[in-house]
Amino acid sequence: MPVAMGDDKDAPTTYCRSTCKIENLSEKFKVTGENYGKQYSNIYFVRSQLMKDRIEAAARKKWGDDVLLKNLADIKSGEKCCIVGTLFKQMELQPSILKEISDEHHLQVQPPRSRFTSETDKLVLEGALQRISLTGNIDPQKCFTGSIVALLGEENVAGQFHIEDMAYSGLPEQDSLPEVDEEQYVLFLSGLGIGSKKEKTFEIQLLIDYVIGMLGGAEDHELCSKIVHVVVAGNSLAGETQDKESQTKAKYLTYKAEASTVQAMNDLDFFLSQLVPYVSVDVMSGEFDPTNHVMPQKPLHPCMFSSARRFNNSTFHTVSNPYECKINGVHLLGTSGQNINNMKMFGNISDSAELLSLTLNAQHLAPTAPDTLGCFPYYKTDPFIVNKCPHIYFCGNQDKFSSDIETGENNQRVLLLSVPAFVKTSSAVLVNLKTLDCQEVSFDLEWNDNEMREGTPEK
């Protein structure tokens, strides 16, 4: 691996970059035998069946082995018991295709919203055969459709289930964090937004120069030599590069027109080609990148990277979204942020780290899929179920950097990491694989000397 160079007062100092072993664990997110003609209803059934044992075990652990577990069809009014099922949130403001075409029927069009919650939202628990309305000790704005939960309470005279307490499956089992002698770092960045009117071209170049050791002083060079891997968590291209009208235009109108996506991809390839000779890079797909739109997203095709692909399968990899891997034994799991951003629209939790904690305890990456987040209509499995607890659980394309440490009853310790969109913040995040400490590194020209903000959470 090439070296990072630094200048000392007396003589130049040479730093050898550390190397790492990467194990891609994202095979389950690879869609085979694509068939979009299937119904989505079966994915909820499969999800509930696959998670039934673990949610019942969590209920017994929280409320005792003698807790009365019952099917919805068997509960009796006034009898305290525990029921397990899939949450469904009835939302008056939730967009629907009928509301989208209301224009054609001269009805009032629903105004654009960034959040679709209201005081009238209600929760329902669905079992295999029936459903029941929920009331009591539960906040609809902190719950999401598709979550598998256990509820303790009793049915009231109105036929509703009055909740005393609620339980998620909890953190899955986790392998121990590898013990290493030297400190190594992974750099997370997302939302480069290439092709945007607000594109941070100069700031991106500063970031590249920083990583390869061409920027900063001796301390920066020493730190950068310990960066063993870079994860680009989606939205490398901006939303403006998507020509939404191209599908409806006559062919002769677009024959000589070069799509803005092409130029943006060339720019992205140019930036990455400067990085991959020095450090290994994983490029995740994102909402605005040229790949399939629904989750899970396929990796960007290497043919789109004429320069960087020379290092394909060595230091340059395009990977799926979600993405799961191990770097020197440290388990990483994360998305480009669609799951978290979608949940923000249908609840009142705005903190990304809190939503990461919720999904990890629910043991599901994207509970709102397929209701409000598009996904492939799986029939026999649900790849978004989290079976193994990662050491680093991240989401990209967030408004700001945030982090937290989640601990479990079985000594699990997870870094919850919100990676800011570079086009908004001009910053990336460094994570220490030895300690899970993290820090934001900003390349904003309004800041001084690549200012770093520590993000070492305690819990």
From TrEMBL:
Keyword Plastid set for record: no
GO cellular component: delta DNA polymerase complex
Predominant location category: nucleus
Subcellular location as annotated: Nucleus
Domain DNA polymerase alpha/delta/epsilon subunit B: 186-402
GO biological process, one term: DNA strand elongation involved in DNA replication
Ranges in coiled-coil conformation: none
Entry superkingdom: Eukaryota
Alphabetized UniProt keyword annotations: DNA replication, Nucleus
Keyword DNA damage tagged: no
Pfam families given in the database record: DNA_pol_D_N (PF18018), DNA_pol_E_B (PF04042)
Domain DNA polymerase delta subunit OB-fold positions: 39-166
Alphabetized GO MF terms: DNA binding
Family per record: Belongs to the DNA polymerase delta/II small subunit family.
Protein name in the entry: DNA polymerase delta subunit 2
Species in which this protein is naturally found: Phallusia mammillata
